[in-house]
Give the backbone structure.
Amino acid sequence: MSVAPIVKFAAKSFTLPSTCVRLRSMLDDPTSGISDLAKVMSLDPSLSAKVLKLANSALFRFPSEVCSVQKALHVIGGEAAYNISMAETANLAFKSFNTSLIDFDQFWHKAVLIGLIAKTLAQQKQMRGSERFFAMGILQNLSELVCANHLPEKYANYLELEKQKIALQAQKDIFGATFINCSGMILSTWLLPEILWAPLLELDDINAELSQDASILLMANLMATLEQGSAILDNPLIPKSLLDEIGLSSDDYDIIYEFATAESLKIASSLK
């Protein structure tokens, strides 16, 4: 089936919060500074509280307490703050598509786990702008909630097929695209920066040749879904090309997975 109706339904059912839009506009304006960003963020008490909590968390590992939004922005940077605002936006979007077919708390926890694994993989690979992977990881399964909400019978069929096939293939068989790919289309219609959704559009075939960004997002999804660290290296479902692209050791995988699982519940709670 075509995913166009799913994307259209999501675009009509949810719009980006004004704070998120204003932050992006200011970050793209060279005349705006940290103090300007702090003023905008401070107008949103919920977002301000989340930024402060996360600036003081193991996600950023700052050595002293961060007690103001402006200091938080100096610690984590404007782009990181924007990606936290995107995580806040993801939570709002998820709630707007909530459905009895999905346990929301489990879904949210897994989304944050994927985001943490993706961010940590990117840091381990010493990639520039690794903060964006946290937001991309959280957002990549947005369309699963949309599909369950808008097409409950097809989603029920998917849950049955998932017991027999790898999840990404079951998604393609039922919906015509993976949830990650469909989420990329939704984020594109919301006019988010291309850097946040373009890698998701690549993830329509687990065996395709992928960019480094897309490879990291796919690996984060697989590690969280399969609940595996270094065991991922011996999993026959994982393409060798993906393992070669990531290129980390078994110890790296275990450290990343253990860190992400240890921190994900705390961070998921901070962002709720």
Observations:
- The chain is about 70% helix and 0% strand.
- The mean pLDDT is 89.
- The longest helix spans residues 250-271.
- The CA atoms of residues 34 and 270 lie 23 Å apart.
